[in-house]
Amino acid sequence: MTTEVHGFPKRISPCPIVEAIVELRFTSAVLPDAVFGIIYQEFGKDFSGKVEKLPILQLPEPIRTIDPNLMYQPHYKLVAGNLLFQIGPRVTSLSNFKEYMGWDNFARKLTEVFLRLQKLQVVKAVERLGIRYINLFKDDVYNNINLRILMNDEPLRTVRTTLRAEIEDDGFTTTLQIANPATLKIQSQAMVGSVIDIDVARQVFETDFFGNMKSILEKGHYIEKKLFFSLLKMEFLSTLNPEY
């Protein structure tokens, strides 16, 4: 994991990030059925692997387009190395899984993808930007974070604990989820451990998104990193070989 934000480690090891996902939801400027073809024509050469149809396409179209839980779901995915690109009528997302490439490299790739999307003119208006990091630890992470769950002023002892909270910060809404134990499935690979899942989202854009995407991405990434490192106890952080 890398970050340029002052005061945070530049790198910790082993890196707990199992997947970093940036999702863009939008109102389409073209017919929904045309979105995939237009985007694939531009990006298909970057993802030479097989195009995979996602299970949502098995549902009738009226259900997919009306149900608010489904309308922003991707319909197709393309994979190249440790990058996953997903496309739907009102959404695209780029994921970095397995080995995390670091924010600087990931941000450059995201900027390139967004600029190419802008030129395609399929996006009429951006409705939501989401920056999500999923971190996996082997041991019970609740023992190592600055967060306590109490009952009658005593630590709550459980065999399974899942916490979900929403936090407002500088125009972004962060959804924090912490679970132990948890099972993750990343690209067909099952992993078990403790999860810290942080999803930083912005839904209101006072200015043009594409013209300000670099600063918006950087601010969202800063909020995610600030929350992640503020959660870790210093004694636990010191075991992760931090480099400043």
Placed side by side, the strands forming the largest sheet appear as: 2-3-4-5-1-6-11-10-9
- Which regions are unreliable across 5 or more consecutive residues at pLDDT < 50? 1-5
H-E string = EHEHEEEHEEEEEEHH
Beta-strand proportion: 35-45%
* Number of helical stretches of at least 4 residues: 5
Shape: globular
What Rg is obtained from the alpha carbons, in whole angstroms?
A: 19 Å
Helix percent band: 10-25%
Helix/strand/pairing class, anyone? alpha+beta
- Biggest sheet, in brief? 9 strands, antiparallel
Number of strands: 11
Q: What's the number of structural domains?
A: 1
Give the averaged pLDDT, no decimals: 93
> Span between N and C termini?
12 Å
Textual characterization of the structure:
This protein has helices at residues 32-43, 61-66, 103-120, 213-231, 234-237, and strands at residues 17-28, 52-53, 76-80, 83-88, 91-97, 123-137, 150-151, 154-155, 161-169, 172-186, 189-202. With 244 residues, it is α+β, with helices and mostly antiparallel strands. The chain has one domain (17-239). The strands form two sheets. A nine-stranded antiparallel β-sheet has the order 2-3-4-5-1-6-11-10-9, with helices on one face. It has a two-stranded antiparallel ribbon with strand order 7-8. Strand 4 (83-88) and strand 5 (91-97) form a beta hairpin. Helix 3 (103-120) packs antiparallel against helix 4 (213-231). The longest helix has 19 residues, at 213-231.
